[in-house]
Design brief:
Four Helix Bundle (Hemerythrin (Met), subunit A), 3 domains, 465 residues, 7-stranded mixed beta sheet, binds guanosine-5'-triphosphate, 6-stranded mixed beta sheet, alpha/beta, flat, Gyrase A, domain 2, 46% helix, binds magnesium ion, Rossmann fold
Length: 465
């Protein structure tokens, strides 16, 4: 749903809820200065006459009663975050004071802002495009250095500039073609086909690079998926809990304890990993467990790294048998064979396993999840496997699924142009595909958007942003 940005004046707590030293309440809209001036009073002069950006100290009054000594600042339109008149009040961070100030603002004509409404207003008022607005949410959610760098670059317009360059190139192309169409009667060819092909393959290359950056971008944003798999009772859930420093999954000596995938993220060595504990693989007649085991194999398919946990006491023949099931879906992924329960291994056990399956799985480790033996080695192996090449800070990395989908569509359209040129298809068709490609790129920046898309994007923001 789109909010008519010029109508209401909205207010919300911009800092995190709960008790804190200071809380910041943000008011935005045409009447924001006037409304705040009814409850915030300077010792001398009128707050509403304050210069833009100047922090003022004053009293928040509830009728004749002093509620708090606070600071407030006006950011006048259009030089504010939303592009409207904005007032930010920094008060003492008591939940009571915050609640009371918000209700005073509402009594005086504000309404509470919806999630993401400030950023939505900024977008609607042309302060930023849609991909920049989305980057604001990513920046707030960023939990690793790489995620932070990418979100910051996107918020500052790195991605938008790249798209703008693409758009200019596409426009150049389409105008050459359309000029030709205008003179079609005269059978002239303005656009040199070789030059057009060169231009199109350059555009296609740029779109390709953006599409391909998503794999790394997604891993940076959502964590590199690591599936922990193996037979029942090998210690998968114990290992998950240990890696996450949290009792996330139930551990028991009963075989088949975990029946569903359980996952959570943690950063190790500056890299965000998403660990996925899975149902142990075994022959079973239990319908629920069977579904769980199917899911395990699906998770192997979705993972970048597979930790195959084996009880170090298991017989070699048994492990080799299971390898037939685990190796095929792990093809192309980093597979690490982890022998667990080292604490109760016979001296021979580990030696015997040293070279087991070494041809197909060169990476192996011996650990004890319960007694925390060699966990540092496992973490090092993960960091090494999860290392993503450093991207230049100017490089654009796509992290957003919506952008990824739009870019894939744009790529399809540009491929049709490339093929069309090769087959000498009529200019109208080329021009249609080019315009379609531009449309998909326009979806990313929000030149083309629907209420539903905007509602989806801004609905996920926090209140006050
Ligand atoms: N001795 C020893 N026992 C361990 C170790 N790691 C886990 N265990 C025990 O092994 C049993 C099974 O552990 P879980 O973590 O539940 O095993 P799982 O692989 O998740 O089992 P399922 O969910 O049934 O597939 C528990 O009793 C754990 O305490 C270890 O390093 N050494
Ligand atoms: Mg388990």
């Amino acid at each position: 749903m789109i909010y008519n940005s010029n109508e209401d004046t909205v207010a919300a707590l911009a800092t995190a809820g709960g008790t804190g030293a200071i809380a910041c309440i943000r008011v935005s809209g045409r009447e924001s200065v006037e409304i705040v001036s009814r409850i915030f009073f300077l010792r001398k002069g009128n707050f509403s006459e304050s210069a833009s950006g100047r922090m003022r100290m004053g009293s928040i009054m509830s009728g004749n009663e002093l509620l708090d000594e606070a600071l407030a600042v006006i950011f006048r339109s259009p030089g504010s975050y939303t592009g409207e008149d904005v007032v930010e009040i920094s008060c003492h961070g008591s939940q009571y004071i915050v609640r009371k100030i918000l209700s005073l603002l509402i009594e005086n004509g504000c309404r509470l802002a919806r999630p993401g409404e400030y950023t939505q207003r900024a977008f609607l008022n042309g302060k930023m495009d849609l991909s920049q607005a989305e980057a604001v949410a990513d920046l707030i959610a960023s939990s690793s250095a790489s995620a932070h760098r990418i979100a910051l670059n996107q918020m500052r317009g790195g991605f938008s500039n790249k798209l703008r360059e693409l758009r200019t190139e596409l426009l150049d192309f389409v105008s050459l073609i359309e000029l030709e169409l205008d003179f079609s009667e005269e059978d002239v060819e303005f656009a040199d086909r070789n030059k057009l092909s060169g231009l199109v393959s350059h555009i296609a290359g740029t779109i390709d690079r953006l599409v391909e950056s998503f794999e790394a971008g997604n891993a940076i944003k959502n964590g590199i998926p690591v599936a922990i798999v193996g037979e029942t009772n090998t210690g998968k859930s114990t290992l998950l809990n240990l890696l996450l420093h949290d009792e996330k999954a139930i551990v028991s000596e009963i075989h088949g304890t975990t029946r569903d995938a359980i996952e959570d993220c943690i950063s190790i060595g500056g890299i965000l990993f998403r660990f996925i504990d899975t149902a142990g693989i075994r022959e079973t007649r239990d319908a629920v467990e069977t579904v769980g085991i199917e899911r395990t194999f699906r998770k192997i398919g979705e993972a970048d790294i597979v930790l195959w946990l084996v009880d170090v006491n298991s017989e070699n023949a048994r492990i080799e048998e299971l390898a037939k099931k685990i190796l095929p879906p792990s093809a192309g992924k980093k597979l690490i064979l982890v022998f667990n329960k080292l604490d109760c291994a016979e001296p021979d056990d580990a030696v015997q396993k040293e070279h087991l399956l070494a041809d197909s799985i060169p990476d192996r480790l011996f650990i004890s999840a319960r007694h925390k033996i060699n966990i540092d080695r496992l973490e090092n192996a993960l960091v090494e496997a999860g290392y993503l090449p450093e991207t230049d800070s100017q490089d654009v990395t796509v992290t957003n699924v919506r952008h990824f989908e739009a870019l894939k569509n744009a790529r399809q359209a540009i491929l049709r142009v490339e093929n069309g040129l090769a087959q000498n298809i009529p200019g109208e068709l080329l021009s249609r595909d080019i315009r379609e490609c531009m449309g998909f790129l326009g979806e990313i920046t929000g030149e083309i958007s629907t209420d539903e898309i905007l509602g989806n994007i801004f609905g996920k923001f926090c209140i006050g942003k």
